[in-house]
Amino acid sequence: MAMKVKDIVFMNKGDGENSYVKSAGLTLKVIAKTQPIVQKAVQSLFTGTHSTPLQVVNVADLGCALGPQPLESMSIVIESIVEKCGELGCEMPEIQFHLNDLAGNDFNTLFKGLSVVQEKYKNVSWFAMGAPGSFHGRLFPRNSMHLVHSCYSVHWLSKAPKITSEAGLPLNKGKIYMSKTSPPAVREGYLSQFEEDFSSVLRFRSPELAPDGRMVLILNGRQSADPTEKDICYLWDLLAEALSYLVSEGLIDEEKLDSFNVPYYNPSQEEVERVIDKEGSFTTEFSDTVVLEIGGKNAWSDPGLRIKGYRCFSEPILSHQFGEEVMDKLFDKAEEILAEDYKQGKEATKNISIVVVLKKKTNQTWT
Amino acid sequence: MAMKVKDIVFMNKGDGENSYVKSAGLTLKVIAKTQPIVQKAVQSLFTGTHSTPLQVVNVADLGCALGPQPLESMSIVIESIVEKCGELGCEMPEIQFHLNDLAGNDFNTLFKGLSVVQEKYKNVSWFAMGAPGSFHGRLFPRNSMHLVHSCYSVHWLSKAPKITSEAGLPLNKGKIYMSKTSPPAVREGYLSQFEEDFSSVLRFRSPELAPDGRMVLILNGRQSADPTEKDICYLWDLLAEALSYLVSEGLIDEEKLDSFNVPYYNPSQEEVERVIDKEGSFTTEFSDTVVLEIGGKNAWSDPGLRIKGYRCFSEPILSHQFGEEVMDKLFDKAEEILAEDYKQGKEATKNISIVVVLKKKTNQTWT
Fold first, then answer.
1. From the candidates B11, B13, B129, which should be mutated to test the interface with A, based on the most A CB atoms within 10 A?
2. Domain A14-364: what homologous superfamily?
3. Tens digit of pLDDT for each residue in A258-296?
4. Is B156 flagged in the annotation as binding?
5. What would the pLDDT profile of A130-175 be if each residue is shown by its tens digit?
6. Which of A339, B115, B325, B343 is deepest in the core (most CB within 10 A)?
7. In this predicted complex, what is the ipTM?
8. Where is this site: Involved in substrate discrimination (chains A, B)?
9. Chain B contacts in chain A segment 221-240 (CB below 8 A)
10. DSSP H helical segments within A206-259, as ranges?
11. Nearest to B111 by CA among A14, A131, A7, A127
12. Which CATH architecture has domain B5-364?
């Protein structure tokens, strides 16, 4: 049976040692770095052609996961609106957040965390809903969303690209993502799946956005045209190496490793823009590539922390393919390799994000 | 520290033997019996003074819990709209469900169940959100809801009534709810807390309803003026008797039993109507008392099934007060007493519901 991404792509649940709640510090750094862009997009909702000021601002967070990240994004939106309304002297609208993720996401933990935001913004009238479902399909009613926001989600594909020979044999043996040694068919398969999926994210959002609505999408991407550049392949190469070690130890089947590819893609800014133009529902108001230094003296200076950062989002999918029982061994081995790479300065040192702000084209209003 | 109802009132989680998902069959019967009333209220949304037909129908289910009950309520709403639109020859609107319960509710299990409805209504454009929070406060933006529905939730109080003597001593010793032997202060305390809480449910919903919006509230209530009539006190008297047995066995402290009262109230139709009139935001379009026969040859013919039905909603709150470790013993003892009562025909034989359909008064439109 084909792997159903919707059942296995989620962030580690709860708030334990390896949970996403505890370990997704990098996403928080990306949120902090891109805050001015989100703020500007939010505030542009108040300077458009609306005949009356918005009474309710509907905000969606696609693939929000759980923990401090969605809460931080909510705070940024609330503060941006408070600031803008202060500036314009207009009455504060009510704000309704729609926190979206696949139904396998730990919404119970997400909801319990909302009290933090409640404490922080007692004087603002805001509401939070959980919206379970895939952003590769419809999620919200027509013309309902003023701001659709997503940080580090839409680089997840709806399924792993099909990368086999005509005879059905795996073409990406010993690897789980694009790599320097992968044949061209692997890169082509990944790019093609990304184009299809990212295009569907845009197509399904288009009817859902209110006129003049904005989308801010932040994807984990890459800087160069080369889809196998070290900074993006490093993580998956590292895990593939650790998996190969487990194969050599007889702990997992070689066939399981050879046939597996992660449903994830790091696009370049140019690839993102090309899909947006081709899909046609949105105008690009802003587009940029944002670089964060990692490793060394920066974030993730410690291999242990970095492995936790990798584990909290890759474990559910790896555990589904290779078994829960080998996960500790897998990440221990990966940490060992990473520590050695740190000594030799071989680890990836950059985290790349592609950020776009999109506006719904006016002729796209659905009735 | 005062007991916080929002942390302890929830239905048993998951889908195990004592779960609400498996054991809340009585609520399903209430939903089936009141279906024509809900249907009529939904369809009345399409025959009002709306200048244009609704494009999106926003529906809220207050205190929806989890399992088949909220899914069944969604089905009734969808089918009512499909039928009405067929009749009127109008285009189907999109439907957005807001499934509300306290943040302690098991939303993860609730969301996983949505696939059942998805399979059933593939050709209808509907969306479901989880809306965590207390219905004794604001939950949704202004003027947003067309239908607010609630089955067997708003009889839960925001807190247990304070029933002590002037010296602070408990007045409802050995009981956990109103009972034949309770002094008048107990009944007064309960009624007063219900009036305050039910009034706040109405007051907080009023700004949230769209013009011409409807509320359908179904409460577990009583038939007569006497708030200690057998059919409503039976459950809590039974549990109090089982708790007293555990006290006599030294398994729980007498003081814990004496000071405890459940935050629950079974109002009469007249009490419900009086609060609605006094609060003033809504016109009552329909009001009735609905009786279901239980026990004997009807639903819950078996004491074991009936105890599971009681346990799935009372366990979290009892377990918080008396400890998880005594729950099996408590419900075993209660089943023993119940079985004896069945033999002697002493058990409650009626389940009473109060049903009201309310329309937002036109001068209550909030801007």
1. B129
2. Vaccinia Virus protein VP39 (3.40.50.150)
3. 999 999 999 999 999 999 999 999 999 999 999 988 766
4. yes
5. 999 999 999 999 999 999 999 999 999 999 998 888 888 889 999 9
6. A339
7. 0.88
8. 149, 220, 264, 324
9. none
10. 230-248, 254-258
11. A131
12. 3-Layer(aba) Sandwich (3.40)
